[in-house]
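Sharing a chain and its predicted structure for anyone who wants a worked example. Both blocks are below, sequence first, tokens second.
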Amino acid sequence: MKTLQGYFIRETFRPFVITTIVLGALAMLTQSLAALDMIVDDQASFIAYLKITLLALPQLIAIILPFALFIAVAYAVQRLHTDNEFLVAFAGGMTKWAVITPVMRIATLAVLANLAINTWAQPVAYKVMREIVYDVRSDLAASIIRPGEFISPALNLTIFAREVNNGVLSDVMIHDGRDRNNPLTYFAQSGFFIDTGPYPALSLTNATRQGIGTDGTLEILEFSSTSFEMRGVIAPQGALLYKRSDRYLGELFHPDPANYWDRQNANSLLAEGHFRLSATLYNLTFALMALAALLGGDYNRMGYGPRLMIAGGLALMLRLVGYSIESVAVETPIVNLAQYALPVFVAVLFLWMTLSEARLGRPAGRLVAT
């Protein structure tokens, strides 16, 4: 029996790994396309773009893992069932539970893997990703300045820099005509962005400012160092804020009472924490749904396509309902119990459907071939 169960495990585990890799690659492709705006809008480097894409992988894997398991179980059990290998197992004296135990073991491993991702890998990756995104969007020289081009970040304001190297601008020209009565033009050997309170500023070195005096003559002032404030041009970046997806479980269940954002979003953080834990249960639920679709009815030599389509649709609907429950739990914390109750109830229901004497394991003479 152990040898046969080991065979069932191998036949299920291989497609599970392959399906996870394929779905993960598709999810990463989608994520990479979504992150292209970092290059287009914020002038992020390709390395930063690649890091952001890869760091999103743990959460993507956590999302697709139950679906990959459903597909793998459906594929493996369908093949074993249609090849009459399960009938041979029953004829050899294996119980119904012994037949599905290999799938349950793989589902349990998937639950543990998903739990490790949700509680450790995702927050670690997302904290790093959030810091990279913050740094990219804080790099004003890269996000605003185009080397060798005249840029107008605001009406009647033009900025030019011949080169941008590691945030340092070379041969800078700024024409500020926003005050029509006092237009100013700055020339500087170099410059770089600095923080001067809520708004950033451009610090200029070896600079010259030209303007028209009250008597209509040209006024020229020279500075070894001066600054040009970007008020009304660049919105303040603000402090780095870790979102719900970036927090560890301890941070979700025990928000910092000294942090204003944490206090205002305590229910949201709590819902996220329960979601991280309850989401792992869907691996077991989806595996049982696939088993029930294939082993929970009469034997069908022609295949089980319609049953699997119905089960797949129910699995997708179940997951969407789970997301909806999390949203409701943000406003009503008691609903967090439903985040666990839903996958557990459905798992028990489909386990009963799979093991029920009325549906599975009938004596060979009573199997119906349709």
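Comments welcome. The chain has two domains: 2-138+241-360, 149-229.
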